[in-house]
Amino acid sequence: MRRAILGMLWVAGSFGPAHRASAQEPLPHLRPAERARLASAGVPDATRYELDLELAPDLRTFTLDERVEVDNPGSAPLRSVVLRVFANATSSRPLVTLAETRSPGCRLSQPTASAIVAELDAPLAPGERRTIALRLRGQLRALRPDETSMTGASLGSLGGLFSGHGGDYGLLSESEGVASMSGFFAVLARRRAGRFEQSDASTMGDLVTDALGHYRARVVVPDGVEVVATGEEGPVRVRGARTERTIEGALLRDFALVASRRLHHVDRDVGGVAVRSWYVDGDEAAGREALEAAARAFALFERRFGPYPYTQLDVVEAPIVGGAGGVEFSGMVTVATMFYRPMDLGPLGALLGGGAGGGVDLEARRGAMLEMVTAHEVAHQWWHGLVGSDSRRHPWQDEALAQYSGILYFEDRYGAARARSEADQQVAAGYHMMRLMGQPDGPADRPVADFGDALRYAGLVYGKAPYLYPALREAVGDRRFFGALAGYVRDHRFAIAPPRALLDRMARGPRRARVRALERRWLDEAHGDEDLGEPDLGRMIGGGAGSDPQLQGLLRGLGGALGGSGDQGDLLRGLLRTLGGGGGQGGVGQGGVGRGAGQGGPGGPSGDDAVRGLLELLEGGAPARGLP
Q1: What is the DSSP string of 41-74?
Q2: Residue 602 CA: distances (Å) to CA of 120, 550, 576, 605
């Protein structure tokens, strides 16, 4: 982190939606132009958090003293306040617990793993502001190195495909001496209709409140441990065998950090912003690839979408698991370790690499996935970072736009043909795999819980909805399309945008009817099979392996068994849930894909063949005989 001593922002006084910042009030982590704009336009109101964090020498446990400044924007007194610890929402056991139940002015309880309730001694009147103090103890989930590999992470995500609840993505974990910490402290719960939310209908997707916050953190770590966090680092003090770091940030959507003795970085100045790529010992080559992708994506997005507000952007290798490739925070993104290391898929990798047409270049695919994930997460600095959205009710709003932004990165760097190929393999493939596995098409704009399971959530939000944007771009032309994106950022900077605000802007003028028709088609209706075409394994996988009959037989057999009814489908779904740690819960739609996909037919594999092939591949043997 930049080692500059900065003043901090604790703006006193106004409880309204925004207030003026004086020249004496520095705004940490913000660029001079952004500070000047806010001094004129007003600083959006945000919850203030003070965090006093101490990590144990093994980086696996911590203690935290926290103070949260809470206001009452409603018209009735508040007698209790709810805070959420989102790291507990997806864990099988609470990782973070209350250490004390009594705080000045309130009594604390933890009725569920992810909810902490503060019962106030005196009601909080409308317009009043009060500080809640609490002490927490936490434990990071210990991940084995094999869990963070491409194979381990893939297997670990399988069970979650058939559940309406998200898995533990390793957001509060330690692996190989790297501690990744997000969702570890108590944040003010989301309020809907004047009531605090204490739980989530589904834990798929992003478990955040979408709200802005001002943060000041004192982080104490063993000497020699580097800390990368959202915000900007101020004074560093060495106290014997411990180092104390002060980190401050204004107008952030969340606070997170990665800590390790093994972190190194390469950096580049891009238009006055320090773009840094942090990597673990031995991963320097991929760390430099991530820097190149991040710097190019950043420059493109700032040119197309508008100015980035912060002084720096950190891209950090982290032990992410459960199917997630990366995670976004304000001014920092984490990217899964599996993209920094050679792609080892065991026998399946040998099959992919030895297809009839020469196979897939696995190293090239790893590099392309690292680029896509990095570009996607950098795009989130605009989509949900700068322009906030309701990530629980309208997850497509930021995710589909970040996906499309990733494809824009490939188009800008490599040209339109490469961008189409990467879109086939890294975007549309999610929709096609959903259909191969028997899940029906449907609307993409719906609350997270309404998707039913992670397979459909990913297929519609990440796989189908992004294609709304190239359709809009063709309909309105580049000038209006990119002008609307930049205007969307200007209109909703550091705010929560209505879910269709960008489309409302594009629909102005003579193209209104066409824009509205595309909006309905891609977000509210079910035309994915017609618009995205039949699944094509050659395009989905790339290289000659996509045309390899053995691999096609295996994948189509799996798709047919997963999507089919009866004992065979149940057997395979149960097998994958077990492999993925999902137990026997959940379910998957029984509807087929149509056009005989996955059926045993002449020359095609049966469900039995697919199951045997998968088992033998996973066990390290040759594919089962009988597969074409």
Answers
A1: H-EEP-EEEEEEEEE-TTSSEEEEEEEEEEE--S
A2: 71, 15, 27, 8
- In this structure, are strands 191-192 and 232-239 parallel, antiparallel, or unpaired? unpaired
Q: Which residues pair with 52 in a beta bridge?
A: 65, 218
Distance in angstroms (rounded) separating the CA atoms of residues 383 and 268: 23
DSSP 463-485: IIGGGHHHHHHHHH-HHHHHHHH
User: At 558, is the secondary structure helix, strand, or coil?
Assistant: helix
Q: CB–CB of 267/277 below 8 Å?
A: yes
Is the CB of residue 497 less than 8 Å from the CB of residue 388?
Answer: yes
Least reliable range by pLDDT among 75-79, 152-156, 245-249, 347-351: 347-351
Virtual torsion, Cα 462, 463, 469, 475, nearest 10 deg:
-160
Q: Is 222 exposed, middle or buried (0-12, 13-18, 19+ CB in 10 A)?
A: middle
Contact status, residue 89 vs residue 114, Cβ threshold 8 Å: yes
Instruction: Give yes or no for a contact between 244 and 18, defined as CB atoms under 8 angstroms apart.
Output: no
Length reported for the chain = 628
pLDDT greater than 50 at residue 159: yes
Pick the range with the lowest mean pLDDT from 20-29, 106-115, 598-607. 598-607
The letter for the amino acid at 571 is L
> 440: which residues sit within 8 A by CB, 6+ positions away?
456, 526, 589, 591
Give the pLDDT confidence of 530-583 residue by residue, as tens digits: 999 987 766 676 655 555 555 555 555 555 555 554 444 454 445 454 444 433
Query: Could you identify the residue written with the tokens 């060495």?
Result: 238
Choose between 350 and 485: higher pLDDT: 485
Quick check: helix, strand or coil at residue 315?
strand
pTM: 0.85
Mention every residue, 6+ apart, whose C-beta is less than 8 A from residue 556: 436, 597, 598, 604, 605
Amino acid, res. 366: R
Structure tokens at 391: 């990530």
Q: Are 274 and 267 in contact (CB under 8 A)?
A: yes
- What count of other Cβ atoms lies within 10 Å of the Cβ of residue 485? 25
CA angle 562, 170, 280 (to 5 degrees): 120
215 CB-side CA count, 13 A = 32
CA 609 to chain centre: 36
Q: What domains can be seen in the chain, in order of their start residue?
A: 18-381 (2.60.40.1730), 382-532 (1.10.390.10), 552-618 (no CATH)
Pairing relation of β-strands 195-196 and 312-318?
Answer: unpaired
- Dihedral sign, CA of 471, 472, 475, 481? negative
Counting Cβ atoms within 10 Å, is residue 192 exposed (0-12), middle (13-18) or buried (19+)? exposed
Q: 409 CB contacts (<8 Å, ≥6 apart)?
A: 293, 296, 297, 300, 371, 372, 375, 379
Cβ atoms of 395 and 206 within 8 Å: the answer is yes
Burial group, residue 491, by CB count within 10 angstroms (0-12, 13-18, 19+): middle
Outline where DSSP puts E strands in 56-142: 61-71, 78-84, 96-98, 102-103, 106-112, 115-124, 129-139, 141-142
* Cα atoms in the Cβ-side hemisphere of radius 13 Å centred on 384: 31
Return the top range by mean pLDDT from 188-197, 315-324, 510-519.
510-519
In which element (H, E) is residue 434 found? helix 429-436
